[in-house]
Amino acid sequence: MAKTQPLTVACQLEVSNTLAKEIDETLLVFATACDWVNANTPKKMTNKTAMQSLVYQDVRTNFGLSANLAIQAIRRVCANRKTAKQKGKKVKEFRATSISYDARIFSFREDDWTISIKLLNSRQRIKLLIGNYQVGWLKGKDPRASTLVKRKNGDYYIHITLDEPTQPETETDQVLGCDLGRTDIATTSEGKSWSGKQITDKRNHYAKLRAMIHKKASKGTRSSRRRCRQLLARLSGKEKRFQKHINHKISRQLVNNAVTNQQSIVIEDLTGIRERTNKKPRSRKEQRLGNNWAFYQLRQFLTYKCVLAGVKLILVNPAYTSLSCYKCLVIGERKGKGFSCNNCGNKCDADYNGAQNIKALGAIINRPGGSGLSCQLNAEIQYIQLNLFDSLGLLKTPHTA
Ligand SMILES: [Zn+2]
Prior knowledge:
This protein is of the alpha+beta class. The protein is 47% helix and 19% strand. It folds into 2 domains: 162 residues, no CATH class; 168 residues, no CATH class. Helix 1 packs across helix 3.
């Protein structure tokens, strides 16, 4: 069987007032049932079969949930406990904002672009409010799972899970180095770059607006303060959507470039930073970008688009990519956006220099027959040695005056 990659398509639902009531009620009962399960099962239990045999009947009789919704509630508790355990935290109180569905209580119909889901008292067919983007993904598909979500602004969405077939990875010795998120959003070893200016401008614009609204709110009446709060929430949504749009665009162009030129893509390995919060970041860049959701999102988009398109994604250690001159490997100097090397006289954009180093490291790892951890380590050691030899003057004689 072909490999697949799960993808989520978010679709807004057309919900009347009466339907909203039943959905809200279902969300509330589902969350309450989860809380109850969490409180009435042994704290360390995370096995869904064991938990089910323990509390399934009670969940059904106490909360009046259908068989499958009861099972979904129990699964939700197990899943949340596992995540909480990984993070070393306790399971929080369940909020009445989402319910998971599988094929027994969820279906999608393409004829009239509707879904059908089980609620507390009935099974409801609901129209999707979607555009070309969602239609493109859903056409001809038979999704088997979804999540019903109530957003903060009160809109209802169904997040439909699609198992997209992936392309087998293309074997190639061509690599495209990408430096993500230094001063520009992305710069490639081919010299293409996506400036962050557009986003910074937009962010500054919103920041000014927010400041104005805050000032207004501090003087206003209660109702005008509420209106200001709503306005602020809408602004932050707009900002996020704009960033998301840009991230989709950049990742799409990078992957298209790799497909057209039969390349693998090389980026810095900053994956662990979120999970290793108690560990020291390996570079200043890692420190700066560790909690940056926009940067994290761009990497996520790039990763899944690579998998879908069969483009190999190579990760390299970020520790040495910004320091050395890509032409002669001697440690150079950075000033603002510029990089200059006293040894060979190379002067270029700092991000471009980074992208070239990332490409060089990736190319070493990507050598035929070399795609393991040991190879990655070797490549890094080789690179550090080169730098070390250089700084000791063993590799070349510096021509500095
Ligand atoms: Zn140089």
